[in-house]
């Protein structure tokens, strides 16, 4: 039936469309490594409806198959998604390939202790991914994440600028959680970053930290004054030692890294231009080049763009350079 007469009273506007805006594209994601971290990333992506297809890939096919079945049994309760098991060739068509494969820290080991083993895994794996999915963005989560992000850029053949590491997105989340807890404020209102290596030499950017729009050194409430130097030190130590403590107690960290990685996936697939401290190969960032390290970056479908205008105090600058040297040295020592 067609309407031939406009029956609206005169003076009324054209009716607006009642259709919701078209959904944004949701890229396919492949996750290599179906261990604690890879499966928790898959679960976090599923819950938030960030991808229309998730492909899980692992050399342990029996475990991978069981994980895929287990995730599929929950499909009824999440936004529509297809979860399947695959091989490296099945990365073809993925917008993002997330790598969590490899050795993990045992109690007492540092992340850098994993460098040699995981670089050798990457030496085989990255060219195979590059062949299967030359355009895909690579999101490195395996540790040591900064060294492996650099390794991935080398082994990919230098053709893909879209290689990033999860970096200190997780450490930054730990940092703001602890600050929020101490100050009795909502975690979403704390704006403070951890940069540098995802590891021992990481550093907090206290000089630019804010709560709401109040510089952190002036933030106080009716209940308490600003953070004391001792409290600041305790917070930073807790952030740095968090993974080791959790690994000593339960063997792995998985929940927060699952959510942190899903957050990065969200920023990419929704083309958000979100500020996140991902690891990226730096080119003259405050004088640092040729090493992958976390600094605040704009993250979108175009990858990560470091924000060169971020302000650093002299001490923060010195510590960031130290952190860069440690990561570069670990890469050289492991044969990069
Ligand atoms: P895990 O042992 O549970 O899982 C690793 C999986 O990788 C295993 O299932 C194994 O079969 C698989 N694998 C090994 N070699 C492979 C290959 N060549 N191809 C495909 N699959 C392969 O370990 P996890 O706890 O899931 O941790 C995974 C990695 O993530 C570790 O390196 C860990 O240190 C790292 N991690 C990083 C962060 C971070 O913030 N970036 C946080 C937590 C863990």
Task: Tell me briefly what this model is.
The chain has helices at residues 36-48, 61-72, 115-132, 145-155, 169-183, 229-250, 255-269, 314-333, and strands at residues 29-32, 53-57, 82-85, 96-99, 137-140, 163-165, 190-191, 194-195, 203-204, 210-211, 214-215, 274-276, 279-281, 292-294, 297-300, 303-306.
Structural description of this entry:
- The chain folds into two domains: 22-165, NAD(P)-binding Rossmann-like Domain (Rossmann fold), CATH 3.40.50; 169-333, Alpha-Beta Complex (L-2-Hydroxyisocaproate Dehydrogenase, Chain A, domain 2).
- It has a six-stranded parallel β-sheet. A three-stranded antiparallel β-sheet has the order 7-10-11.
- Helices cover 38% and strands 15% of the residues.
- It has helices at 36-48, 61-72, 115-132, 145-155, 169-183, 229-250, 255-269, 314-333; strands spanning 29-32, 53-57, 82-85, 96-99, 137-140, 163-165, 190-191, 194-195, 203-204, 210-211, 214-215, 274-276, 279-281, 292-294, 297-300, 303-306.
- It is globular.
- It has 336 residues and is an alpha/beta fold.
């Amino acid at each position: 039936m067609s309407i031939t007469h406009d029956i609206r009273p005169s003076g009324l506007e054209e009716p607006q469309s009642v259709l919701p805006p078209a959904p944004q594209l949701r890229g396919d994601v492949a996750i290599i490594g179906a261990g604690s971290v890879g499966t928790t990333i898959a679960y976090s992506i599923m819950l938030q409806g960030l991808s229309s297809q998730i492909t899980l890939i692992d050399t342990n096919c029996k475990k991978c198959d069981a994980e895929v079945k287990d995730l599929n049994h929950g499909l009824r309760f999440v936004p529509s998604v297809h979860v399947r098991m695959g091989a490296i060739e099945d990365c073809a068509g993925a917008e993002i390939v997330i790598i969590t494969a490899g050795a993990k820290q045992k109690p007492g080991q540092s992340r850098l202790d994993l460098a040699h083993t995981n670089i050798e895994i990457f030496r085989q794996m990255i060219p195979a991914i590059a062949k299967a999915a030359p355009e895909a963005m690579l999101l490195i989560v395996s540790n040591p994440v900064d060294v492996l992000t650099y390794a991935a850029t080398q082994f990919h053949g230098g053709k893909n600028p879209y290689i990033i590491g999860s970096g200190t997105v997780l450490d930054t989340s730990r940092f703001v959680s602890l600050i929020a807890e101490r100050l009795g404020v909502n975690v979403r209102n704390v704006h403070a970053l951890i940069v540098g290596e995802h590891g021992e030499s990481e550093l907090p950017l206290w000089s630019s930290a804010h709560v709401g729009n109040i510089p952190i050194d002036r933030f106080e409430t009716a209940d308490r004054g600003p953070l004391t130097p001792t409290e600041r030190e305790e917070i930073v130590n807790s952030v740095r030692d968090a993974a080791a403590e959790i690994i000593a107690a339960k063997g792995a960290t998985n929940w927060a890294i699952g959510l942190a990685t899903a957050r990065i996936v969200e920023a990419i697939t929704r083309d958000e231009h979100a500020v996140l401290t991902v690891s990226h190969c730096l080119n003259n960032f405050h004088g640092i080049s040729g090493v992958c390290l976390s600094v605040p970056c704009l993250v979108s479908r175009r990858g990560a763009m470091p924000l060169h205008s971020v302000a650093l105090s002299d001490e923060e600058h010195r510590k960031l350079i130290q952190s860069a040297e440690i990561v570069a040295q670990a890469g050289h020592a492991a044969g990069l």
